[in-house]
## 1
Amino acid sequence: MMKIFVEKDYEAMSKKAAEIFIEAIKEKPNIILGLATGSTPIGLYKELIRAHKEEGLDFSKVTTFNLDEYIGLSPDHPSSYEYFMREELFNHINIPRENIHIPDGLAENIEEYCKKYEEMIDKAGGIDIQLLGVGENGHIAFNEPDESLSLGTTIVELTENTIEVNSRFFQSVEEVPRTAISMGIGSILKAKKIVLLANGKRKAPVIKKLLSTDRVSTKFPVSFLLLHPDVTVIVDEEAYNG
Ligand code: GLP
């Protein structure tokens, strides 16, 4: 079942999402969170940092697993997702380093590492709340539209569209890695609860399609969320109305 909240703007969307996460962390201090990168969740992360600093929201028992990472970028590369997460969230809250998991883009044997990452999530007890953004082409994490989609964490090839769209986080489009490690559609659907955020006009076509379809398609990966029993979609008016 998909619950949808339409909020006035980006700030209101971020606050609504933060309410859900803050409540959940208070209720279950050792919660397992699935986290996302991209422009969309930055406002939510700001709210979580605010709640930590002003209200003492405690992250000391929280565990996190990130959705994806570019292959070949070191954690200190300014465009890596690990760097992003440190800057936008982890450096500003009291989460222990050992509770943070982000796929290792420099792993020697990536295929083996992907299996290990999936096992680590299962061993931790599974994700309680998975945060998601959505790509303009309907990708979630880096599960790009394709003939088939991976169930578990895997190596993915990015589409030209995604490379182009994500080049804004790099010096040039040539610098964007062409492959990534990504949690699979199955890894995402195993989460107990999913929160999907989208804001801005660029996301309006994908949100419209998601909210009007009753079919799942590997060509539209976000549609697989229709199979999950507890999905909350939070969008701003621009993403809802176009
Ligand atoms: C990126 C990430 C996704 C993210 C999406 C949307 O490529 N791999 O996890 O949800 O694209 O990004 P943004 O929030 O910047 O629009």
## 2
Amino acid sequence: MKIMAGNSNLPLARSIAAYLELPLTDASVRRFADEEIFVEIHENVRGEDMFLLQSTSYPANDNLMELLICIDALRRASAKRITAVVPYMGYARQDRKSGSRTPISAKLVANLITQAGANRVLSVDLHAGQIQGFFDIPTDNLFAAPVMAADIQARYNEADLTVVSPDVGGVVRARALAKRLANAPLAIVDKRRERAGESEVMNIIGDVKDRACILIDDIVDSGGTLCNAAQALLDQGAKSVAAYITHGVLSGGAVARVNSSALTELVITDTILATDAAQDSTRIRTLTIAPLIGEAVRRISDESSVSSLFD
Ligand code: R5P
């Protein structure tokens, strides 16, 4: 097996390669003067089981195009099997027609990755599990929950914890984390979004009075969902609110919003390379997901069970 990386998150790629005790494949992924992407693989990959690491995070379109062109280069270089390892799958939130005459971009992206020549996909906390079905190739969806649960157990008294989903759609994810935390009680924020990009908290379902609340979600983008939920929980008598979110998209003024929010801490993973602002924030901490992805890559290559990683 060989590991190759696009440019979206080289520190994560290096950590995964280190876990597997492998070098990154010697390749250059660069730009022509007009910003077209050019990929050149400088070593033989014929007959290799290739794992290509690239999150399609900001700038989403450039990183997606890089992913597709790298897959094409590997396919034309006669790699035996190509696994697109996409820790953060951009466009995943566009997974249904949100209105008349709108696209399902998550399906289009799945088609593009497949048509480019990927044989498998490996991702982390896909926005919706059903996105696996958008691919007609095997797709493994890893969960950050074990990494988060270990961190929470090291820092909190489990008896004080309530796990909170910031919206109704996240209840399954929240329940899975609660199960790992001695079956902590659950609460749900009933969120209504009036306009795209804005969020409004309506009600808290469940008892959060005097509880240490852990908000869990797959994505923090503008930070609106999270910061509003944190304030609503405190208004209902919560003792403290921290958030564990897999993908720190953190666009626009999100870091400033988190810094001035009621959250004691926002914990993200390194599926997306943190911006300087996020790295400088004393309110934001990053957990690495590299050993989890590295172990899944090893098991895919060995053809052993990936799901047993989560037993
Ligand atoms: C929505 O369904 C997602 O799970 C996140 O809650 C959402 O993407 C977060 O967005 P924002 O941080 O912009 O409120």
